[in-house]
Amino acid sequence: MTLDELKRLFKKQIPAAYESLKEAETMPEGEVKRYKISAAIEVIEKAQDILESCCDELNFKDELILAHRTENVPRERTAMIFFDYVNTEPSRAIKNLKALEDLAYKRLLKLLNDQEVHLQDVSNQQSMADRLKAREERMKG
C-alpha cells in the first residue's frame, strides 16, 4: 500500500462509507441497500484492521488521530483534544491537526512496510529451512 492509497482510504473512502451508511438507512429493504451497507462496512473494517495490526507500535497521538479518522469523528472535535486555541483560532487548529495527521499516515505506512518486510523474511527463512530439509532427505535416501 502506498502513502497516497493510505491517505485516500482515511480521507475519502471512510467518510464516503459513513455517508453510504446514512443513505442506506433511508432506503427500502433490498439488494441495493444490502450492497451499500456491506461495501461501507468492508471499507471501515479494512481501516480498522490496518490500525489493529499496528496499534502496539503506534504512539498514542497517532493512534488517536487515526482512530478518529476511522470513526469519522469531525476534525474539529479531534482538534479540541490537541489544541487549546481551537475555539479562538479554529482554522489554525485544523491546519495543525492535518499536519499531525499527515505525519501519522507516514508513520503508519512505515510500520506497515516494516511488517511486510518482516513477513517476507519469515517466509524466506521458512522456505530456506524447507529446502535444507528436502536436501537432507535426498542425501539420506
How do the helices and strands line up, and which of them pair or pack?
Layout: H1 3-26, H2 31-54, H3 60-70, H4 75-82, H5 90-140
Helix pairs in contact: 1-2, 2-3, 3-5, 4-5
Number of strands: 0
Largest sheet composition: none
What is the average per-residue confidence, as pLDDT, rounded to a whole number?
90
| Tally of contiguous helical segments | 5
Question: What's the helical proportion of residues?
Answer: over 70%
Radius of gyration from CA coordinates? 21 Å
How far apart, in Å, are the first and last alpha carbons?
Answer: 45 Å
Query: Could you say which overall geometry the principal axes of the C-alpha atoms support?
Result: flat
Structural class: mainly alpha
How would you portray this structure in words?
There is one protein chain. With 141 residues, the chain is an all-alpha fold. The protein has 5 helices and no strands. The protein has helices at 3-26, 31-54, 60-70, 75-82, 90-140. Helix 1 (3-26) packs antiparallel against helix 2 (31-54). The protein is flat, with a radius of gyration of 21 Å. The mean pLDDT is 90.
